[in-house]
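User: Hey, quick favor. My workstation is busy. Could you predict this chain's structure for me?
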Amino acid sequence: MTVGKRVFDVVFALLLLIPLSVVILVVSIVLLIMQGRPLFYVARRMRAPGEEFGQLKFRTMLLDESDFGASGAHKNWRITRAGRVLRRTRIDELPQLFNILRGDMSFVGPRPPMREYVERFPRVYAQVLRNRPGVTGLATMIYHAHEDRIMARCTTVEATESAYYRRCLPTKLRLDLIYQRRRSLRVDLWIIWNTLMTVLKPNWQGRGPRRVPAREKYSVEHVKLTTLQDHQTPAE
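Assistant: No problem, here it is.
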């Protein structure tokens, strides 16, 4: 992470915490009343190869000690009533402001992966995790809704894992590599703005600008599968 990106993250996080601390407090009280403790879900994620951290979120599911892997429709029964609202509005991710202040995450970057993915595809993630994981990112902004639709059709653990490895992960990694080539403050601000508008207006992605602002002329369609194959592509 560059000094400029780190300074931006800290200053922006502190500015957001001034108004959002009230929202965090209210949500904490509501969750305490509706579903009890723990208020937060601490997901073990990787911020760099060999470096794990606890990603903070408001808890939106019933507790299950055997929980693992990607989330598909087979986990829907565990989502609480309050959790559905928090997920739809992305409020469940507000505690990640503290991850940003600690330096575990940035506002923009690849979504932090689970250890099993990093260990299975070490060469790809050695490249992707050169950028600090982000609350949002190019892959999140462009592919999140489509990924949700794919995973919503997976009713078993096996179907979820297969769909994630075969369909979601390769595309997300391509987008993460595109971001790595084109990362800049301008691109970060563009991603933050479009992510915010997507939350406020669900159809924003259909109307808003989709081209990444940069000098290089790349697009999602132009990134060939060989880009990942050179770094150890997830098996089909």
